[in-house]
Amino acid sequence: MLNPQLNKNGELQHLLSIEGLPKSIVNHILDTASSFVSISDREVKKVPLMRGKSVFNLFFENSTRTRTTFEIASKRLSADVINLNIQASSASKGESLLDTIDNLSAMHADMFVVRHAQSGAPYLIAKHLIDTKQSHVHVVNAGDGRHAHPTQGLLDMYTIRHYKKDFTNLTVAIVGDILHSRVARSDIHALTTLGVPEVRAIAPHTLLPGALEQMGVRVFTNMDEGLKGVDVIIMLRLQNERMSGALLPSAQEYFKSYGLTPERLALAKPDAIVMHPGPMNRGVEIDSAVADGPQAVILPQVTFGIAVRMAVMSILAGGHA
Amino acid sequence: MKKIHIKNGRLVDPANGIDAVQDLFIDGGLIAAVGIAPDGFVAERTIDASGLVVAPGLVDLSARLREPGYEFKATLESEMLAAMQGGVTSLVCPPDTDPVLDEPGLVEMLKHRARNLHQAHVHPLGALTVGLKGVALTEMAELTEAGCIGFSQAEVPVEDTNVLLRALQYANTFGYTVWLRPQDAHIGAGGIAHAGPLASRLGLSGVPVMAETIALHTIFELVRSTGARVHLCRMSSAAGLELVRAAKKEGLPVTCDVGVHHLHMTDADIGFFDSNARLTPPLRSQRDRDAIRAGLLDGTVDAVCSDHTPVDDDEKLLPFGEASPGATGLELLLALMVKWADDQHAVGSDSSALSRALAKVTIDAARVAGLPAGDLAVGNAADVVLFDPAARWLVNGAALASQGKHTPFLGYELTGQVRATIVAGRVAYER
Amino acid sequence: MPITTTTDFDAEALYRTLLEQVRAGLAGVPDAAIVGIHSGGAWLAQRLAADLDLTNRLGSIDVSFYRDDYAKKGLHPDVKPTHIGFNVDRAHIVLVDDVLYTGRTTRAAINVLFDYGRPARIMLAALADRAGRELPVAADFVGVHAELKDGQSLSLQRGDDGQLSLTVEEESEEPRA
Known about the structure:
The structure holds three protein chains of three kinds. By secondary structure, chain A is α/β, with parallel strands linked by helices. Chain A has helices at residues 23-37, 64-76, 97-106, 121-131, 150-164, 182-193, 223-227, 251-258, 262-265, 288-291, 298-317; strands spanning 54-59, 80-85, 111-116, 138-144, 171-175, 198-202, 218-220, 232-235, 273-275.
């Protein structure tokens, strides 16, 4: 089966996952994003690239912050934005996913930004659009189950590139609930695609997926060991809503062994940066002193996130030379 | 009852060690002779089976007919036609209908409906516990009298080990066979794919092999204690098969089957979240598939079934985790066994590959179920399938009579197509 | 002005010609400003602003996000930053480009300026004007009117020493607007 993300010429037609994206496309997105960063500093924070286009935010899983950043990005591109908050439901309760897509396509949607609780949902939509010959409609995955959150992965890479410049001599540690984290998976794929020589995962056994080594990751269950000499620390949120079945005794115990305190941060390189996809659970995965400290780049991540999403949407919406 | 002469066909009857061009003679619904016509035999119908294989009608150890209760997914008529198109002349159906097959009246009704179609012989499995709830035992003797050939929990594990122990003891009192899926009630519950690197990458909750092996250990302990005969349904892992191998060596009265999809596919066939590959048990790794193939060759795996489960569009055109598991299989079972035989030919095995493959869906399956089927000896029921072992056909909705059009083999070209299916000496289906 | 059809231009001489025209055109004009279109126009604008003592009223624009061929060709790969260092409202702006051809780049640049404010007036200065307008655009200040054949384009380069050169290139792709 052909990767539905790329068209016959290997160009991006949907952004579904960082896995399977050639390095050249990842770099193209990052380069394009840097030209969008300065637009936020202008008086008129808009460019007319997507004027007249309709972007539908289809969020089957609640998220104010991601939806808001996509909305801002769309509006900065002069697109019309329609927000649909559909509570996650099985087919028997309401309209099926594909029926919803067909109805919205009939309203001349140009782009769907989709967040869904099920891994793979955006692929179903992309395949359906390809099968029904609607190649002018593009899908951006804003997070599907545990599988992927590609725009987050890209903005994390943009952030790392901004502060560290060269990926090929970095050690990056991802800490936390890797098992349930789509951010972790996207970051891992992006880091390995961009040539980061050492990617580390730090978590208790109950929060580690099986066969992580096969994704090119070095696994640590001891955080002090795992943070030694690290250039970048990506802290993950404890996914309370995704946890079931006795994975952790308590948040307090988690903080004791896996919380990022100033003492633990000192084990990394002195110029190490601290990242977090947000929202943060202060005192659970990260100490306030670190979150508010000079090494944290969490707020710049948010700013870069708008530029990266503008880049993704304008690359998808534009013609292809 | 017609006198039928099937001539020039390649007769493959694994039960009697026959694989040769030989004629077959049917009279009064039974096999009248093999090779040479009986004295004074005048055929009322002659079928020229040149280029075709003539074999016992297939015995499918698991096919869901969706009646009673799930008529919106499929009906008896459509699924029985699918069986004919697939050359299946005897089939066993699991008790997870709606209502569950735990009352003799329901079993009689199903058998009556099936009989009136004059197509495949339908042999229901009765529920082991009332409503499949794993609490109270069913009236196994009454159900057997109504036509059940064994007792099963379908895909619902029994949580209370003590209940399972009592059920096996009771079944053993009467010599009934208990058909069980080796599946722990809690480990891997909610899992939708094999717990391995692929599920980790795709972010799909996994069912570890441990869910199968822990259940097997429990079942074997209970068998040791009760002496009950257990048939293990839909083995999926190398580790599980090792345990079965050891149990058989020990002399425990256990048999096992695999679903035909697991003979060919692995979790990699999920591809980009293709919900047609959503099955239970899940498709596992290459190592597990290789162990299944080896198990078929060394006898650890007794039979192959289709595990036919018609699922309609509304339940498959959904994100992977929301889709209903299962695939249509009655019409693919034969071609997929031919495919296995052909794959072995390709690696230079001897020409008995087809006979070995057919054995697993005829006589060996019949033995597991305790049915007088899958055997073309003189005097046996004339349940016969004629098929073209070289005919290629495309698997798509139009080619399938079943109302379930979903299979991971959609779009594949398969080899092996049924030309005629004869049940009890009557040509019930012809292409 | 006569039409020149040589394969070589003296860019520095053309610049001096353009400079005198702009100086004359801005005489007595209040709130004057110079805005160059990347890349060649920006180099010229820098020189003009220095020579006209308007370095605090200088800007440079990248029109990539305002082009009209986005639906066909997608985003231009190399986007430079846009920077307007003065208040556009009521300004008398000289928009500077290296080569004026179809007029589409000028149209896009005007749109960019209007996103920043409402100028009193916009005048256009081009080092070279090659015929082939597709929009009703005309330059107020021109270094040279050049006639080129199909498949030829003009390219302004800047050397390490800051010296400008203008050459004719044979191209197989579509020339820049």
